[in-house]
Amino acid sequence: MHAYRSHTCAALTAANVGETVRLSGWVHRVRDHGGVLFIDLRDHFGVTQVLCDGDSAAFAELEKVRSEWCIRIDGTVKARDPELVNPKLPTGEIEVYVRELEVLGAAEELPLMVFGDQEYPEETRLRYRYLDLRREVMQRNMTLRSDVVASMRKRMWDQGFREYQTPIITASSPEGARDFLVPSRLHPGKFYALPQAPQQFKQLIMMSGFDKYFQIAPCFRDEDPRADRSPTDFYQLDLEMSFVEQQDVFDTIQPVLTGVFEEFGGGRKVDQEWPQISYKDAALWYGTDKPDLRNPLKMQVVSDHFRGSGFAIFAKLLEQEGTEIRAIPAPSGGSRKFCDRMNAFAQKEGLPGMGYIFWRDQGEGMEAAGPLAKNIGPERTEAIRQQLGLGVGDAAFFLGGKPKAFEKVAGKARDVIGEELGLTEKDRFAFAWIVDFPIYEQDEETGAIDFEHNPFSMPQGGMEALNGNPLDVRGYQYDLACNGYELVSGAIRNHKPEIMLKAFELAGYGEDEVKSRFGALFNAFHYGAPPHGGCAAGIDRIVMLLADEANIREVMMFPMNQRAEDLMMDAPSDPTSDQLMELGLRLIPQE
């Protein structure tokens, strides 16, 4: 017999009754039934109930074991009494009578319990992550993650892609976040960087004639943490293709993700139609470039109904350039109580409040109620109602100003309204491509033009577009949103050196700086560069959605905490004096 096990703790069934078996695993739970010990023995695969009484030579030793001791038992498989069968367990028809026991690893008093669903502080969970990972939900999440990655790989190979690895130590590159720098021992005073993404390398792979590339790629960004973002590293399904247009990329990644969500979504509906929504419309309708389309609500511009109206706040606001009033329809939200609650929400978000109108039945007909209705009068109120398609029992909420100042709050309000009124459809994955991103933005204070989005994307209209107003230039850049999260980002790349120079020139980068920062890519464009494009899908975020978790750390094996610290490994740590000397570095004390 094998030194540790003849079966896993999920393998035994009624067919094994009478057999002598060997199992190894962790003590999940101990129950003492007056001279008979019952232990749930757990391994990665499942749980088997084992028992022992005073007639067994192993009884005295088994009495000593506690939760999370790692043990090996030899015993005989017995059928459970019919009334004691546990249909929830694959091994629920049997139990194993223990005849011999070996303690493989004793456990001290536990800082967190593996059995049960008790909540523990994040600090405890991350410091003792190896115990936290033993819990059933974490075992399930990590297995899901592994299976999702395997499925992605197979689906990419099935589409004719090959996997290639790109360097982990490279040069610093502005990708929109801070680099992690690595000092060079052989070149004192110089630094490598961990790649924020394989962006330049995968483009260079296209320059090299490989046509289709993908990689399950680690990426490193020194970012502020959020619930849906790691502060240090993450993984993405990275892909690039030659001789393609935007729609080709969509047609490639859609069946991969659709298949993954159908395979691992637990029966939830997966939308087959993925609408393409312009960045401008997404901001207008949803207040965000990653809308949750399970919520059917769309915001609308209603500025004309308030221009010159009796509601002075909005009327005066509209006299300023670049301002507008938007309405969020709220079907079935027509009660003063709900309207007051949403007004309080806006105040918590830092706004003075949120105007509202709600419509109620007054017996003889419909009446518009609320402060706004009184101020603007029945004609304007009725025009708003008709524009929004609302009726009795419905409401509308209003925000005004320069869109960039209130869009984010408006988007949150839309989400809250959809959630509270039961309009957001659960058990569904709703996808949308967000397209036509602006390449440039203007600093309101300085007037300077800089990149708003990916500087490597091809401008729509090519060089001709760059000769006009930079703020009007749209890129062949796209994101995929799902249930309020950005899952994919990509672009058709700029592959022409003269367009690259012009694009960076508009953002204030001279030719020398472009050649210095992106020399390899710029040079490669001079030697027969093919049109190419691709995208990257965030694996951590995809698994988070599939696992129905609200925090990305629940689907990462060894995540950092909110302060970008690894409490288990004590990182970041202080370097030794010898290390600093070898690297030619000196630390300056922080004041």
Average of pLDDT: 94
**DSSP strand count:** 24
Could you tell me how far the N terminus lies from the C terminus, measured between alpha carbons in angstroms?
65 Å
Specify the structural class: alpha+beta
Biggest sheet, spatial arrangement of strands: 6-9-10-24-23-22-19-12
Helical amount among residues, as a percent range?
25-40%
Account of the 3D structure:
The structure is a single chain. This protein has 591 residues and is of the alpha+beta class. The chain contains 18 helices and 24 strands. The chain has an 8-stranded mixed sheet, sandwiched between helices. A 5-stranded mixed barrel has the order 1-2-3-5-4. A hairpin with a 6-residue loop joins strand 20 and strand 21. Helix 4 (136-158) packs across helix 17.
Lay out the secondary structure:
Elements: E1 20-32, E2 36-42, E3 47-53, H1 59-62, E4 70-79, E5 94-105, H2 122-127, H3 129-132, H4 136-158, E6 162-163, E7 180-183, E8 191-194, H5 199-207, E9 212-220, E10 233-242, H6 246-264, E11 269-270, E12 276-278, H7 279-286, E13 300-301, H8 303-306, H9 312-317, E14 324-330, H10 336-348, E15 355-361, E16 366-369, H11 371-388, E17 395-401, H12 403-420, E18 428-429, E19 431-435, E20 440-442, E21 449-451, H13 462-466, E22 477-482, E23 485-492, H14 497-506, H15 511-517, H16 519-524, E24 532-538, H17 539-546, H18 577-583
Parallel strand pairs: 3-5, 6-9, 11-18, 12-19
Antiparallel strand pairs: 1-2, 1-4, 2-3, 4-5, 7-8, 9-10, 10-24, 13-14, 14-17, 15-16, 15-17, 19-22, 20-21, 22-23, 23-24
Helix pairs in contact: 4-6, 4-17
